[in-house]
């Protein structure tokens, strides 16, 4: 599932702490601004708190970069995907790996595979719906933030027309205003939103997004980056030694248990 | 008084005049040639630098991947219909309300002072605050009020927000046009017995609007694009459609397709208006050499 | 406050200032129907200002203007109603540059006086014919010579058939033959019942057209009376001096 | 010719005139009062409906939570400095280039035909395509080309993109201003021996610019806001700063704070320019009653 | 192609059309230095067009204009250099509305002729004084009376000390006393060495100021010569007819 086959650097060439990074001796990691709960806690990735922050530090360590050698920068979505040289070594902000995207940038192996979930409120059209057919039948209007897999789920998997928002804040407001009936986000975010941001919020259920071509979140690197192989190896190693599972357990444990819509 | 053309229908330019015309033509041609060649040279150099730069291929593939562009075009066109529909609706309302506001602001009647004051505040405020906030306030704020009977349809609310903002801009453009019409024109119209309204209708506005047509077109073109801002409310316009595709593919060609759609509408519009304007000016003005 | 029976226009104690400059300083006169009252006076003496005030284009600072016995300087007057009875030719012509000659002339007859376009065009074309401008009907004002523009301005005012015509230097751009044509027109109009107030620098024209001549000086009407009396036998010293200088300049 | 003021320094308005003035004043006051009261009534009704609507409290907390606004203000102000800096830099370049383009487009010399043609294309294209695409193309495209010696500093590139777009708009506004100056003014200036350039400098442009000041201000105000578009390149302006905060808190007050900052700059600017303009017009024009 | 020795301006076979209208149809004349050549003719006969062509403000369709022996209708001529020697007063004044009277007058002396602001102001003020406009120096043109505007236009042209003055109907808005003042000025200027081409409708003015009088008709100079000859003893039938009508109109 890794897109690193075409990456030049063989894994054996990864000398700890001496990769061909943007800035020698340092590892520059980018994330979004703001970075959201529970991926990063309090928008402070430097603290290592939050799922993606923890993953980033784990990968860094695997690559031979201590906490002090890691530098965080913020990037916009466009800044991450634009052609040309990048100012980060890798970028993580829930980028789903797809083959189409892999033509433009490199991805590591996936570090997490999130299902999508529909957030709504008590008494909405979607309250009580238990399967995918029910969503369509309810004539529900679903929203999602732009540049997310959630959007693909609505359009290609449910075959509905989505209301597309700049970010989850817009979607949540529209949901509160009952301008949409449900907001599709990844499951961890869904738990946060339904619990904290939406009065009487509910999670209608989760949807396996694989059918929409989603093969999980990967670390994003510049196309043909010399370190893609090393990073992928690091992620693979972290997966096999159980580190990622532990991190998932720590930050995303309470995100299981929503009914699966089929 | 002056002789009709028949007098000199068989008039032939003198030898001197023929030489002069030839020379003038030669000179013009030479200058046009110089200007043309230098333009081509400059543009050519840029193109060559562009095409031979190390990153050209990757840039081309990211921004100008035509096959992909054609593939996403239907989606972008679908979004574009939103821009066009909103422009038609918002455009006409903006024209009307902007005109009203401009008339209030340019009126001199002391009785209208409070309205003039309000109109000034309106323009200052709604021109000055980011349109995105107006759209958020109207599009998300009004439904949040839960006033019975008031729509929470984003298309309607978004259009209202666009109208509110653009009215401020267009009012200023029209105001400037109205101010350029010399007071003696009003005096003449009123002295002919035309009412205040008739004077505006037949004398002031025809001259005013003609004079500010270029900035009005600016605003129309900007409006077509800015109707897309209501995409923050969840409506998909051409740029949003492009953005969605780009987010999927990490390729910017959809934006270029959106731009081409915009140009396909705005350029003919601009050229057409410009031609009408130029014709009317040519008919109206005596043209000397200056 | 009553008006002499035959006076169409009656002006009493009119005063107009621009900033610190007193332009009209207590002007009083009456204009009987079917007559022409002509104002002469040095450049800057306030002739144009007076005509503009009569047309309610300037707000006067004091005094009364009565038209047809109605005080048109009253606060609650509707100036549009007043101006329906008035025609004005401006010193600077003030043609509408975005309209052809014909459109300039027919605008008011159609929009204000309710003529059909055909009626208005017919009347306009016959007036244009008379002033030698038939072939300029579709031309735009900017492309006319000075004298042609002035004739269009005159025709534009005539086409409305007003009760009172206010004419400001209407011969300044005309050749002598046309001046005569205008003179004849003015006489004809008077016979047809028109009343006129005219400002001019042309003593000859003034003399020939005026039933009443007023000499404006220092913001006041220094002398007025029959044209021949004022011009040939001026009583007031100011008038005498002005006319003497005009004479010595060979312009009489 | 006319008597100096000293003649009538002790002139007192007649009884009639005093009555007239009083009546006029009374009438004006009455009308102002009616206009004022009706305005207040309408606005008041709206406010009452607003404040008594079921969702008012929630709306107020979402958009006007002042405590939170004050908290985020420093961040928004920090972003705002970007807007101001870019506006100053871009603004002056846009003024210059826009003027140049307008002059080319309004020139009549046949020798300049190729330039006129290019200028027209330039305006049509860069006015017509969404600024976001220009910013992406310049801000991400140029660095992607990897031409040696060419900067890849986003601030510089973003500013260039803004300049490119706004030049097209401002050129059209100035062009319209230049076209409103009557050809006889040029003729007079040239007949006085002024060169083409001097004629522009002293006769055409002073009149032209004065006439299009309101639409120019439109563009300046829009520019202040639109410099923020370069935030897609990763620069944080006031609106982007607000957006970041809003995305965290799901509360829109930061946008309102940004809007207040914009207004704090644009309103004084507009009022000041308007006053200068009105003064100059009052000095210049004879003002009749129409 | 040579020029008679004392001619400052020489025009040969000048032709100008507007669309299908032939306005100037083979005009030839010479203007000796220190003299005034006056053009009379009906309204629309092409006087203004001729003056504009002399000032290179209209491109002629045929013919030659020579100034100081130099063909200024040549293609490679620099019109700015030519116009430095020329002064023009437009029939419609064409004052700059955004400049005060003083600024209108001093613009060219300062920017084109390199005078200091003080020199230019001094000269301007003395000319304003002479034409009775001293106190209007800081006023804006829109606030002047017609005659005041015309005087400013005249002063603006005079202030530049040109070699050749082109004057288009410069007395149309003036009162008789001022007309006389202008007449005296023109005479003085001639004595000081100025050369002039003048278009006018005022036969009296023409007669008194002209060294050479040309009657323009049908796009041609039908008759020219000494003013008294042309006006009092016209030879050509067209001239005779025009002057007869002027006479019968009482305007001579
Ligand atoms: N709007 C104005 N503001 C200030 N002063 C003005 C205004 N209009 C006219 N004036 C002044 O008022 C005086 C009278 O002007 P008016 O135009 O009435 O003169 P006039 O008798 O028509 O002169 P002319 O024969 O030159 O046309 C002049 O001194 C003029 O400068
Ligand atoms: N720009 C133009 N386009 C078309 N026709 C024009 C233009 N300018 C002048 N004409 C025409 O050329 C003729 C001559 O005009 P010109 O202004 O030279 O006359 P003129 O002798 O100065 O008349 P006047 O004594 O009335 O000022 C007129 O018939 C006029 O309509
Ligand atoms: Mg006057
Ligand atoms: Mg003329």
How would you sum up this structure in a few lines?
Chain A is of the alpha/beta class and 262 residues long.
Query: How helix-rich are the residues of chain A, as a percent range?
Result: 25-40%
> What's the total number of strands of chain A?
10
Helix proportion of residues of chain C, in percent? Answer: 25-40%
Overall form of chain C:
globular
Strand order of the largest sheet of chain A: 7-6-8-5-9
Task: Give the bound compounds.
Answer: adenosine-5'-triphosphate, magnesium ion
Sheet-strand content of chain C, in percent, reads 25-35%
> Which percent range describes the beta-strand content of chain A?
15-25%
N- to C-terminal distance of chain C: 39 Å
Number of helices of chain A: 9
Structural class of chain A: alpha/beta
Most extensive chain-chain interface: B-D, 88 and 87 residues
Low-confidence stretches of chain A: 1-10
* Mean of residue pLDDT values of chain A: 86
N/C terminus separation of chain A: 25 Å
Low-confidence stretches of chain C: none
Provide structural commentary.
The complex is a heteropentamer, with one copy of chain A (262 residues), two copies of chain B (290 residues) and two copies of chain C (252 residues). Chain A is 31% helix and 19% strand. Chain A has helices at 51-63, 77-81, 99-102, 132-137, 149-157, 168-176, 187-197, 228-240, 243-252, and strands at residues 27-31, 70-74, 90-91, 106-112, 116-121, 142-145, 163-165, 182-186, 201-207, 217-221. In chain A, helix 5 (149-157) links the parallel strand 6 and strand 7 (163-165). Chain A is elongated, with a radius of gyration of 19 Å. Chain A starts with 26 loop residues before the first strand and ends in a 10-residue tail after the last helix. Chain B is an all-alpha fold and 290 residues long. Chain C contains nine helices and ten strands. In chain C, strands 6-7-8-3-9-10 form a six-stranded mixed β-sheet, with helices on both faces. A four-stranded antiparallel β-sheet of chain C has the order 2-1-4-5, with helices on one face. The chains are: A alpha/beta (262), B mainly alpha (290), C alpha/beta (252). Chains in contact: A-B, A-D, B-C, B-D, B-E, C-D, C-E, D-E. Chain A binds chain D through residues 33-34, 36, 43, 74-76, 78-79, 82-85, 166-169, 172-173, 197, and chain D through 62, 136, 139-141, 143-146, 152, 231-234, 236, 243-244, 246-248, 250, 252. One magnesium ion (MG) binds at residues 47-48, 91, 168 of chain C.
């Amino acid at each position: 599932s890794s897109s690193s086959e075409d990456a030049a650097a063989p894994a054996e060439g990864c000398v700890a702490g001496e990769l061909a990074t943007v800035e020698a001796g340092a590892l520059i990691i980018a994330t979004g601004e703001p970075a959201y709960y529970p991926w990063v806690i309090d928008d402070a990735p430097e603290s290592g708190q939050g799922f993606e922050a923890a993953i980033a530090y784990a990968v860094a360590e695997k690559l031979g970069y201590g906490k002090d050698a890691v530098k965080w920068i913020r990037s916009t979505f466009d800044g991450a995907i634009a052609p040309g040289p990048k100012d980060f070594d890798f970028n993580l902000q829930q980028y789903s790996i797809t083959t189409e995207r892999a033509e433009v940038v490199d991805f590591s192996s996936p570090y997490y595979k999130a299902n999508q979930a529909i957030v709504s409120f008590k008494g909405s059209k979607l309250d009580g719906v238990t399967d995918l057919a029910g969503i369509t039948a309810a004539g529900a209007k679903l929203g999602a933030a732009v540049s997310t897999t959630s959007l693909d789920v609505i359009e290609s998997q449910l075959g509905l027309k989505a209301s597309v928002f700049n970010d989850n804040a817009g979607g949540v407001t529209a949901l509160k205003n009952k301008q949409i009936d449900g907001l599709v986000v990844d499951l961890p975010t869904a738990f946060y939103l339904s619990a904290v941001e939406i009065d009487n919020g509910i999670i209608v259920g989760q949807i396996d997004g694989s059918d929409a071509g989603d093969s999980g979140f990967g670390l994003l690197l510049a196309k043909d980056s010399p370190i893609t192989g090393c990073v992928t190896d690091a992620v693979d190693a972290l997966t096999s030694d159980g580190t990622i599972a532990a991190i998932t357990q720590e930050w995303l444990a309470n995100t299981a248990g929503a009914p699966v819509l089929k | 008084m002056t002789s009709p053309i028949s007098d000199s229908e068989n008039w032939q330019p003198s030898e001197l005049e023929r030489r002069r015309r030839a020379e003038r033509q030669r000179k013009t041609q030479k200058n046009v040639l110089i200007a043309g060649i230098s333009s081509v040279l400059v543009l050519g150099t840029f193109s060559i630098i562009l095409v031979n730069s190390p990153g050209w291929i990757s840039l081309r593939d990211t921004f100008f991947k035509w096959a992909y562009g054609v593939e996403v075009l239907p989606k972008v066109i679908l979004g574009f219909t939103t821009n066009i529909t909103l422009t038609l609706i918002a455009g006409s309302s903006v024209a009307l309300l902007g005109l009203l506001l401009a008339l209030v602001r340019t009126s001199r009647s002391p009785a209208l002072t409070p309205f003039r004051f309000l109109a000034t505040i309106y323009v200052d405020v709604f021109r000055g605050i980011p349109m995105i906030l107006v759209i958020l306030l109207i599009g998300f704020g009004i439904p949040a009020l839960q006033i019975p009977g008031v729509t929470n349809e984003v298309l309607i609310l978004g259009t209202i927000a666009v109208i509110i903002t653009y009215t401020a801009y267009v009012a200023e453009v029209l105001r400037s046009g109205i101010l350029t019409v010399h007071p003696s024109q009003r005096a003449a119209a009123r002295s002919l017995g035309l009412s205040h309204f008739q004077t505006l209708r037949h004398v002031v506005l025809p001259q005013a609007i003609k004079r500010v047509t270029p900035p009005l077109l600016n605003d129309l073109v900007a409006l077509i694009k800015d109707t897309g801002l209501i995409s923050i409310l969840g409506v998909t316009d051409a740029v949003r459609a492009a953005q969605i595709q780009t987010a999927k593919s990490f390729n910017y060609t959809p934006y270029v397709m959106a731009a081409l759609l915009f140009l396909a509408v705005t350029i003919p519009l601009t050229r057409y208006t410009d031609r009408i304007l130029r014709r009317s000016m040519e008919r109206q003005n005596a043209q000397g050499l200056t | 406050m009553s008006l002499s029976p035959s006076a169409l226009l009656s002006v009493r104690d009119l005063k107009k200032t621009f900033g610190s400059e007193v332009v009209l300083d207590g002007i009083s006169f009456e204009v009987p129907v079917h007559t022409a009252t002509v104002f002469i006076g040095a450049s800057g003496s306030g002739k144009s200002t007076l005509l503009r005030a009569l047309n309610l284009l300037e707000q006067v600072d004091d005094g009364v203007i009565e038209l047809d016995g109605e005080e048109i300087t009253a606060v609650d007057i509707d100036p549009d109603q007043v101006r329906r009875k008035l025609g004005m030719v401006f010193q600077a012509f003030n043609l509408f540059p975005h309209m052809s000659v014909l459109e300039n002339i027919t605008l008011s007859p159609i929009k204000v006086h309710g003529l059909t376009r055909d009626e208005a065009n017919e009347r306009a074309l016959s007036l244009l014919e008379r002033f030698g401008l038939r072939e300029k009907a579709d031309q735009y004002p900017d492309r006319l010579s000075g004298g042609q523009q002035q004739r269009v301005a005159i025709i534009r005012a005539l086409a409305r058939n007003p009760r009172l015509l206010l004419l400001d230097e209407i011969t300044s751009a005309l050749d002598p033959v046309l001046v005569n044509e205008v003179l004849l027109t003015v006489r004809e109009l008077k016979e047809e019942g028109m009343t006129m107030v005219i400002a001019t620098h042309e003593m000859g024209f003034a003399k020939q057209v005026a039933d009443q001549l007023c000499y404006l000086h220092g913001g006041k009407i220094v002398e007025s009376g029959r044209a021949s009396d004022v011009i040939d036998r001026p009583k007031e010293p100011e008038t005498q001096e002005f006319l003497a200088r005009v004479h010595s300049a060979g312009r009489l």
